[in-house]
Design goal:
Length: about 325
């Protein structure tokens, strides 16, 4: 920072650069262990974020007991928040209680900025669930079907927003958006288009996140053991006929949310072997028959009289799966 070209770095707190180097160290550690790809630089178009935290505090003298919250920031009730090393900022949502935190992450989505901080609060999981075991079948037509008969669908607003997104992209298909190599600068109209595009993408992502969070929370509150199929999501996306539907229904995100909510709601998530014929097997007589994706009603060909929805039949089979086909998530 002693060089003139790095003078701008003095305008920001040192914790911004410290947290960036810590994230870089973690990224290289994951890469060396084979858990992730080689780290890539962030772009200005997406992923704008930085982290600040408080390092200096009031330390007690020799013989005195440590003071509480000496290395933390106290956040008062209201819409104002003072970030460490930065100025006081106004929040869109009001904070209704006094709290404290040490680390603050500031991120940008489209043209809006968000600040997130962690509170030291323990959630007491419930000790009673009204359903002991539930099978959850993720599908293309229906987002999720439970063995107790509950169904969850992706809102129609997602489809409307995607249609609006496609129209916006089509109308601006010939717009000069700028190019770094030939040094073509993006026009003001192109920058406005980028903002509209980012807003629509964020709107669609928020609809999906809101739907999946509410669904996984509802299931985690009512069932103690949740059984889902160990789907090969990357292989399903490789099929161009299913890629859009699979990506829209967030199969892996639902599994991730159910897994981390185990500690919050006292649940246990179990994965059923991906080769287990849950969709092709009758849930009454266990007869296995071929089923194409276009068939939405399961009619048992063995003559047991089982006629029910394909996804409901699969969810019941997942609930009653044998022990040798089950493993913990």
């Amino acid at each position: 920072m002693q060089r003139p070209e790095y003078a701008w770095m003095r305008l920001y707190p040192s914790t911004v650069y410290q947290s960036a180097f810590m994230d870089l160290k973690d990224a290289f550690s994951r890469w060396r262990k084979g858990l992730a790809e080689f780290p890539k630089k962030k772009t200005k178009k997406k992923g704008d974020s930085f982290t600040v935290y408080k390092t200096a505090g009031i330390y007690p003298s020799i013989g005195e007991s440590p003071l509480p919250f000496t290395n933390r920031v106290v956040i008062n009730v209201g819409k104002l928040i003072k970030l460490p090393g930065l100025k006081e900022l106004r929040l869109k949502e009001r904070i209704d209680f006094i709290c404290s935190s040490q680390t603050f992450s500031v991120s940008r989505t489209a043209d809006k900025w968000f600040v997130s901080f962690m509170l030291d609060a323990q959630k007491i999981p419930p000790i009673f669930h009204r359903i002991e075991t539930i099978g959850l079948d993720l599908g293309v037509k229906t987002l999720a079907t439970c063995s107790d008969g509950t169904k969850y669908d992706m809102p129609i607003t997602t489809k409307k927003a995607k249609i609006k997104l496609g129209k916006l992209q089509w109308r601006n298909r010939k717009k000069v958006l700028g190019n770094k190599k030939p040094r073509i600068k993006a026009s003001n109209n192109a920058l406005k288009y980028y903002t509209k595009l980012a807003r629509l993408h964020a709107h669609i992502a928020n609809i999906r996140l809101d739907t999946t969070q509410k669904m996984t929370t509802d299931i985690s509150r009512k069932a103690a053991v949740i059984r889902i199929e160990d789907l090969n999501v990357s292989g399903m996306i490789a099929n161009h006929k299913l890629a859009q539907a699979v990506s829209n229904n967030c199969f892996y995100e639902i599994r991730r949310q159910l897994t981390y909510k185990q500690a919050h709601y006292g649940t246990k998530v179990e994965l059923i072997d991906r080769w287990y014929p849950s969709s092709k097997m009758c849930c009454k007589c266990h007869h296995i028959q071929p089923m194409s994706l276009s068939e939405r009603i399961f009619i048992c060909s063995a003559g047991c009289g089982n006629i029910r929805d394909r996804d409901k039949n699969a969810s019941v089979n997942l609930e009653n799966a044998p022990i040798n086909k089950i493993r913990l998530a």
